[in-house]
């Protein structure tokens, strides 16, 4: 089980952190930037100079180009310290990996995760001056709250060690 105090949503390059869907955690009231927010945020814009997170389900969500050609949207970025060291988790929605569609297999999606770590995660880490022990890239066919199981969801995960300008794959 993941304790609420052990992870938080990542800060943004914007003037203020984005309000998560439904507002901040109930113990700290509604709003943003108050304590460890544990609900999801999504990507609203990615440019060469800034990554700005917005509210889940926005019409202007950015779709990333990946080697498989599937549609991949950034759902949330989490800073997780449950292991005693910082892990940055990039959670993407990738509807084409759904079991019932069988369009994109794990073998096709694995290079997508490598690509997202190399092109998106490393840039984000540099922009936000983060030095995590691990970067986790996950693809899910639907939004699943972090730390909760959903037997109907298809999810793929890969872990990387950021080293300079490279993401080094690390087996879980």
TrEMBL record:
Q: Which domain of life is it from?
A: Bacteria
Which protein are we looking at?
A: Acetolactate synthase
- UniProt organism field: Phaeobacter piscinae
């Amino acid at each position: 089980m993941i304790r609420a105090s052990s992870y938080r949503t990542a800060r943004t390059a914007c003037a203020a952190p984005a309000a998560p869907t439904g507002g901040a955690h109930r113990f700290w009231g509604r709003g943003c930037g108050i304590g460890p927010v544990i609900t999801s945020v999504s990507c609203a814009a990615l440019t060469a100079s800034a990554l700005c997170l917005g509210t889940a389900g926005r019409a202007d969500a950015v779709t990333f180009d990946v080697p498989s050609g599937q549609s991949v949207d950034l759902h949330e970025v989490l800073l997780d310290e449950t292991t005693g060291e910082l892990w940055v988790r990039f959670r993407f929605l990738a509807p084409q990996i759904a079991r019932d569609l069988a369009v994109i297999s794990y073998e096709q999606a694995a290079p997508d995760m490598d690509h997202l770590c190399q092109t998106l995660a490393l840039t984000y880490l540099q922009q936000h001056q983060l030095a995590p022990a691990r970067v986790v890239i996950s693809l899910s066919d639907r939004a699943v709250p972090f730390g909760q199981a959903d037997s109907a969801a298809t999810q793929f995960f890969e872990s990387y060690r950021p080293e300079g300008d490279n993401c080094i794959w690390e087996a879980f």
